Amino acid sequence: MNARDGTPRPVPVNTAARGARNRKALTRLGKRLMNEYHLYLIFLPVLIYYLIFRYMPIIGSVVLSFIDFNMFKGIADSPWVGLKHFLQFFDSIYFWRLLRNTLMINLLNLVFVFPMPILFALLMNEVRSKILKRSVQTISYLPHFVSTVIMASMAVTFLSPSIGFVNNLLASFGGERIAFLQKPEYFWGIYTVLDIWKTMGWSAILYFAALTGINGELYEAAMVDGANRWKQMLNITLPGILPTIIIMLLLKIGHMLDIGYEVILLLYNPSTYETADVINTYVYRKGVIEASYSFSSAVGLFQSVIGLILIVAANRLARKYADSSMW
Amino acid sequence: MTLVVILTLYPFLYILAASFSDQLFIQQGKVGIIPKGFNLDAYKLVFEFPMIGRSYWNTVVYTVTGTLVSVLLTVCAAYPLSRKSMLGRKFFTGVILLPMIFAGGIVPTFLIVNAMGMRNTIWAIIIPGAVSSFYVFIQRTFFEAIPQELEEAARIDGCSHMQILLRMILPLSLPSLVTIGLFYAVGQWNSFFPAMLYLSDKSMHPIQLLLRDIVIMNQTDSVLTGAAADERAMIGESVKFATIMVATVPILLVYPFIQKFFVQGAMVGSIKG
Asked: Where are the transmembrane segments (chain A) (predicted)?
């Protein structure tokens, strides 16, 4: 009403009006808090969930590692034993075997499994036909969706001494049939091949993404300069995806002690423990099957701590040399 | 390239062929990727054995219930974390992030689940692994991609966060919810480890665990409870292959349709996660 003719609105001076305004502001604040309150309400179940199923196990593993846990006495009344379980683990004959297996399987993974998706992505990058590209990619994802049980089942079937394809092939060339899964010397190889089969296509997705991010003009410029396909790959494509490669490498190093133990659990047996047993599977056997809760918690904690150190170190390195980091 | 395709596909084709083949030919190692002695006996047996049907049904129940619970909890985690107005957002993000780097391990989790009396219940399968921090971050990224202006408009109209979430954000992010849901569903369908840890009752076993028993451990008796003696003699290689097929086909069927979502989701997750 006053706005049209330009006269300023009368400034409310009486206290009643000011009170009303304050009340309004207060209810606005209250409303905002109500909104926030909804956010926390939504978040609450997750928080409780994380406390029980993620944080309690962490606290539990620390506590259990330093006591002699007895189911009937409960945590509070079980005696405190300090580093006993850790020392017992370091002294046992299993320690070096587990560490060697865990590290070797990871090292093989780093050397053979890790470069595969990169090679695959680079190879695919050279394929000009779009349809071919897409169909090959689609097929390469398939194994990712197969369960570990089925993958292990396939391995068992294909390696079976009596009906397995691999042994049939060996036999047809006059070789002897070998019970691959009973021989410790083959386990690392089998595991590595399975790992490549399952993860190659899926892990390549990231590199495909990185490849599409490379500026096409670079290739044109290179062509003008007379660089052939190989040179282009070496000087443009590879440097283009290098940051992605480094990040993936560091992530991998961070998880050095972690292994897809489900597959191992399915494929190993007492005759191959020698090479197949890793920290995780040992923890499972000791903790769940033999019910040595405290001892296996200590072993698990040892693994987690080393893992944490590796992750933090890897992240440092990433920040320093790759100019990117996980956090 | 062709090598990759052959090596990837061969195992699938072989199992498909073997499941339709006569046992005799499989044992002689004569089956390649074309079935020999074509018949459907193996599949008939698979569906007739009570244990296989039972565990198949269990898997369906676990997958459906598990996926619903997982998606619900993931939204509950991702939505507040995606709102800039949430106080302590950084702290809570840390709460979700930390277990990705430092986990308590199998044994303490096992003890907690036991202590809560979840053993031999469906909850032991569904709850302990219900939320994946990784998927929370993927979902959060999706939520953040929804234009803020939409939310502001709704706010002006007097909507609360709950209303905004239910009426606006969720319908808008349906594609991402489907993606996350399918990630969870595939995981649940394929999982055997929690069942192995917590379910001693065989009638509750999912199909993956049954498969482990019959193919890897070679314990056919668990499948055959209730089967007649002459049926016992018949279970053999082809039945194993048929069971593998039956357990895998649903996923392989869904996957071409959702592949696009999957790939997108995986990329978003890994780039921003």
From this structure: 37-56, 103-124, 145-166, 186-212, 233-251, 293-318
Q: For residue B273, what is the nearest residue in chain A, using CA coordinates? A: A326
Angle at which helices A15-50 and B89-101 cross, to 10°: 0
CA A112 to chain centre: 17
Q: Do A54 and B162 touch (CB under 8 A)?
A: no
Chain A nearest CA to B247, separation (Å): 8
Higher pLDDT, A219 or A100: A100
Predicted pLDDT of residue B272? 42
Non-local (6+) Cβ contacts of A219 within 8 A are A232, A236
For A11-37, what is the mean pLDDT? 68
CATH architecture for segment(s) A94-322: Orthogonal Bundle (1.10)
pLDDT-derived band at A134, boundaries 50, 70, 90: confident
Domain with CATH 1.10.3720.10 in chain A: 94-322
Cα angle vertex A133, ends B14, B16, to 5°?
A: 10
Contact A108, A188 (CB under 8 A): yes
Q: Is B237 on the interface with A (CB under 8 A)?
A: yes
* B84 close to A (CB below 8 A): no
- Reported as a single tens digit per residue, the pLDDT across B190-226 is 999 999 999 998 889 999 998 888 888 776 665 555 5
Rounded CA Rg of chain B: 23
